Amino acid sequence: MASLASFDRKRGAGRPGIAGVDEAGRGPLCGPVVAGAVLLDAGFYGEAAWLRRLAGANDSKKLTAEKRAELRGRIGEMAAEGKLRAVWAEASVLEISAHNILGATRLAMARCIAQLAQGPLAGLFPAAGTEGELFGRTEERNVLVLVDGLPLRPFAWAHESVKGGDGKSLAIALASIVAKVERDRLLVELDARYPAYGFARHKGYGTPDHIEALRRLGPCPEHRELFVRGILAGEEPPPESQDEFSFE
To answer: How far apart are CA 209 and CA 4, in angstroms?
Structure first.
């Protein structure tokens, strides 16, 4: 936890704050891809009591479902208290089909940043204007946007990428927790609509019981057509669809 906060302090030195952005659900066979974003004011990192409330924050893949839920609750409480901003957004199955999974991920992330640019912390964005200008492209007075993974191209928002950022940056780690918990919640809701597929158990990933149900019943409207086409033809599910930590 201390090292994650230290990373942000060093990376964002001189900036008014850091916005961490991450996604959940790029690999599953169904459901939306969800992005989360958490904005921490530069002063947040100097509040030891606030940091203690988020003790244990890390890459969501390294946390139990219970710990993720606990931290998501604390993030929500601190957002309600005005100590941070936390938002999430999704890109639908139809948008995944239209833009491919990378394009849909960019879309969900852009929607998150657009939300952060509104509300009581809008004063942190002095370059507010069009989406491409909002965070500035060169001016260091603007909020630093850190995105987990590789640079997003094309992307309307100025940002820096951090490979493995959800295990390095506190802001990104918190965003990864928000994205994961919210996507899991959406899959539980989908399970109520399509109970035969077991979405609440496997969260849309390519488990054996999901593959069996998919081949036996055919896809539902929330299955990603390009992702399941080969499986329905008898092929094995791709490795990225079998993210075991999500089977909790």
So the answer is: 37
Q: Per 3-state DSSP, what percentage of the chain is helix, strand, and coil (rounded to 5)?
A: 50, 15, 35
Q: Over pLDDT 90: what percentage of the chain?
A: 75
* Contact yes or no for 22/35 (Cβ under 8 A): yes
Rounded to whole angstroms, how far apart are CA atoms 110 and 30?
21
Using DSSP's 3-state secondary structure scheme, residue 41 falls into strand
Instruction: Give the type of residue at 95.
Output: E
Kindly report the pTM of this predicted structure: 0.91
Omega before 239 cis (within 30°)? no
Cβ atoms of 131 and 110 within 8 Å: the answer is yes
Residue 90's H or E segment, with its range, is strand 85-91
- DSSP helix/strand/coil, 144: strand
